[in-house]
């Protein structure tokens, strides 16, 4: 019997980049959605580093964020992650694997860490890996997280929208997170800060989606497939935007299927949690 | 169709009292459990204050914490609360009714408040009513909340234990929260601060229950029924403590039923959330 954790998928609608030499402090401001489609992570301690493995949907993969968690917790484990989410398409799968590994490993080894300590370990590992800046803290919190201050606790500070809408999504392909957040992010961050200001003035679900849509265009991240899908959803009376960072469109309620797309449906949900043994 | 919210029950194991003239800042430090047995709250806006009603399990009751939420949000509503939890026995039912009213009312009226704003409204109303100091923030967070700094956001600051144990509970009667937290709380608070220090040094579920047990005795809050049940659970190899503030014993896993008690069983669960329409 191995300890298991469920970590929701996390879609960021808009963000700004806040680098720092300390990976616990570095991160992003922005807002997103924690999704009931997520990642179930199990760990099984092994005797030494040579036994470390990460199986993602049954396939051995390398994920530096997970390696970072094992290093920081000083443990060796075989990690098994199962998910229905698309990979590298803006759903925070690497953050989910990192956070799920931290939670399950602590339970399995009676590690005696608090929630905030484990979130900081996963966040710092994800930031160092260059695969995300805000997914882990959003996934830990759940709901519709608003990242007011970047980084993990105690520096990071989140609020949220209380709404729990249905969400549909469709993916046309990946985007390289490391390339985008490692490049020139000045214009992107300016657009992200403006979006956060807009949401602060009117904290509603509709404002969030509208601000996210504007952000993706201002940051020049949309692709033709993404633009078309967003326009189709709006033409059918719905609300949609782009997931950061993937060629992925998310819509409120049944916005995508009403516009004729074969979309996957889920809900906004609670934060990451250990599962019953 | 009226908006509805689910708010977990919340059992505090130990606490210290931190008064302040501002009810958002006043509160308690301590630690507890958010329980899957909770309160489902529905609201239906009404035309004027004369239509305000609170029905708790079908019976009209007065609950100043709920009245305070309506006043602060400037709204009039009929509030319906359903729960399997014992009332006035240390499960935070009044806090749950206050927080559930805030969440559901905001959804029903498209009020545009954030999570933290609604938590602050419910917390301040509960503090002013004198019926609780830390339940609302624990119920909003979920899991096994550790209240590191008193009060609602942004002053209040919580961490938590990642464990999600099964919990059993039994109630022998109520305690008057207002009387205890309105009286001389110096010795109680000293014991609560010591318990928090103990949990900080070793943040595990077992430490939490042990520190809670010691706290209840040091604060001279246990009754003969409570003492007997705690001792019986320990004699049967389990872990139990007293819920603040009620003549209620909670135990990990099946600790009470293994000791021969007819206890109710639930789990540690996530924080308060709006329910699907």
Automatic annotation (TrEMBL), chains A, B:
Q: Which domain of life is it from?
A: Archaea
Which InterPro entries does the protein's record reference? GHMP_kinase_N_dom (IPR006204), PoK (IPR012043), Ribosomal_Su5_D2-typ_SF (IPR020568), Ribsml_uS5_D2-typ_fold_subgr (IPR014721)
Q: What is this protein called?
A: Pantoate kinase
Pfam name, any one:
GHMP_kinases_N
Q: Does the keyword Transferase apply?
A: yes
Q: What does this protein do?
A: Phosphorylates (R)-pantoate to form (R)-4-phosphopantoate in the CoA biosynthesis pathway.
Q: Which reaction does it catalyse?
A: (R)-pantoate + ATP = (R)-4-phosphopantoate + ADP + H(+)
Alphabetically ordered keywords of this record: ATP-binding, Coenzyme A biosynthesis, Kinase, Nucleotide-binding, Transferase
State the Gene Ontology BP annotations: coenzyme A biosynthetic process
GO MF, any single term: ATP binding
**Pathway assigned to this chain's UniProt record:** Cofactor biosynthesis; coenzyme A biosynthesis
Gene3D superfamilies assigned to the protein according to its UniProt record, in alphabetical order: 3.30.230.10
**Broad EC category:** transferase
What family classification does the UniProt entry report for this protein?
Belongs to the GHMP kinase family. PoK subfamily.
Q: What is its EC number?
A: 2.7.1.169
Q: Which residues form the GHMP kinase N-terminal domain?
A: 69-143
């Amino acid at each position: 019997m191995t300890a298991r954790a469920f970590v929701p998928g996390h879609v960021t609608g808009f963000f700004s980049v806040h680098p720092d030499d300390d990976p616990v402090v570095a991160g992003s401001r922005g807002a997103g959605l924690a999704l009931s489609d997520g990642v179930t992570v199990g760990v099984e301690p092994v005797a030494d580093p040579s036994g470390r493995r990460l199986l993602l949907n049954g396939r051995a993969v390398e994920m530096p964020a997970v390696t970072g968690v094992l290093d920081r917790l000083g443990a060796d484990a075989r990690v098994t992650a199962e998910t229905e989410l698309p990979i590298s398409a803006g759903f925070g799968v690497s953050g989910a694997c990192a956070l799920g590994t931290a939670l399950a490993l602590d339970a399995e080894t009676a590690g005696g860490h608090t929630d905030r300590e484990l979130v900081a370990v996963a966040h710092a590992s994800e930031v160092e890996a260059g695969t995300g800046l805000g997914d882990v803290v959003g996934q830990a919190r759940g709901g519709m997280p608003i990242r007011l201050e970047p980084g993990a606790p105690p520096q990071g500070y989140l609020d949220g929208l209380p709404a729990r809408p249905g969400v549909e999504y469709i993916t046309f392909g990946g985007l390289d997170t490391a390339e985008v957040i490692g490049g020139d992010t000045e214009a992107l961050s300016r657009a992200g800060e403006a979006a956060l200001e807009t949401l602060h003035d009117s904290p509603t679900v509709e404002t969030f989606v509208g601000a996210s849509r504007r952000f993706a265009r201002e940051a020049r991240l949309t692709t033709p497939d993404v633009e078309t899908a967003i326009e189709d959803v709006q033409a059918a009376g719905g609300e949609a935007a782009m997931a950061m960072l993937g060629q992925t469109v998310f819509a409120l309620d049944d916005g995508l299927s009403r516009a004729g797309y074969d979309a996957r449906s889920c809900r906004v949900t609670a934060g990451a949690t250990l599962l019953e043994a």
